Amino acid sequence: MESGNQSTVTEFIFTGFPRLQDGSLLYFFPLLFIYTFIIIGNLLIFSAVRMDTHLHNPMYNFISLFSFLEIWYTTATIPKMLSNLISEKKAISMMGCFLQMYFFHSLGNSEGILLTTMAVDRYVAICNPLRYQMIMTPRLCTQLSAGSCIFGFLILLPEIVMISTLPFCWPNQIHQIFCDLVPVLSLACTDTSMILIEDVIHAVTIIITFLIIALSYVRIVTVILRIPSSEGRQKAFSTCAGHLMVFLIFFGSVSLMYLRFSDTYPPVLDTAIALMFTVLAPFFNPIIYSLRNKDMNNAIKKLFCFQKVLNKSGD
Questions:
Q1: What domain count does the chain have?
Q2: Full domain range(s) for residue 59
């Protein structure tokens, strides 16, 4: 490959989007609605937990942090998707691509670690309730929350820095709807085996995280089934059902996206999986954490009542 072909690549073109003449505008408004719903829903959950003192406990503090991360996780990709849907040229600058990869995956890593922390929290609460307050202290919860974010943002930094130093060749087409590691690495003009080894390590990390959460819930379900009263079992299940559903959606979409049995999928299936991973999974999380949770519903209602009181006092 000639050096000229390497040096002239200053942007990448997405090929996963439909063209304007093929009706890409038809996808714009549903995606805009979903993105708006995700932002408003997660802001409501975050604000409700912050303002309602009854929800100032480890479980809801973790949920509020997860909602906060979800806002930025979707913002890393969806606004650019919306822009590309109404543009003739579906492009992104190289620096924009690297930044999108970094923030998208760093926020995703932080969410995965936080889900593991939430599973451990539910494990302690249900399997060792008498020592729960002693173990899950406010200080430990703060350390776990901060550690999830710090580790999530640091683990990917060396890989993104290495990718940003690679030379890239023509054609500069990314066969996806957002910048992802494997599609971008496939455009590099040099050997990327060392970086791909890191991807294998990340895949192993995903599997280990999944196993930790899965084993925690196997133990939790075993303990719940031993509770003699049906009311007690139902109450115990209700405290972890939401997190279990979010866990299944999150890691199910991650597995479809990154733990593949085939190197390539048909383009339509590839785009569908990417949309489920980046859009649909975050769309369901506010629904799960609000509609299926009476305490959260009450806190959100109080938030609206508080806003009405403020509006009246302002008048």
A1: 1
A2: 11-296
Q: Is the residue at 113 inside a domain? A: yes
Name the β-bridge partners of 46.
Answer: none
Question: Cα–Cα distance between 234 and 9 in angstroms, integer?
Answer: 58
Question: Phi and psi (nearest 5°) for 93?
Answer: -70, 160
Q: What pTM value is reported for the model?
A: 0.86
Contacts 24+ apart (CB under 8 A), 255-263: 255/206, 255/210, 258/202, 258/203, 258/206, 259/203, 259/206, 259/207
Instruction: Read off the pLDDT of residues 47-96 as tens digits, 9 standing for 90 and up.
Output: 888 888 888 888 889 999 999 999 999 999 999 999 988 888 888 998 99
From CA 119, how far away is CA 122, in angstroms rounded? 5
Any idea what the Cα angle at residue 210 is, between residues 207 and 213, rounded to 5°? 150
Please state, in angstroms and rounded to a whole number, the distance separating the CA atoms of residues 23 and 237.
45
Residue 192 · residue 164 · CB < 8 Å: no
- Total length of the chain: 315
Any domain includes 198: yes
Q: Is residue 234 part of a domain?
A: yes
- What does the alpha-carbon distance between residue 88 and residue 21 come to, in Å, rounded to a whole number? 9
CATH code of the domain covering residue 246: 1.20.1070.10
**How many whole angstroms separate alpha carbon 307 and alpha carbon 310?**
5
Q: Looking at the domain assignment, is residue 241 inside a domain?
A: yes
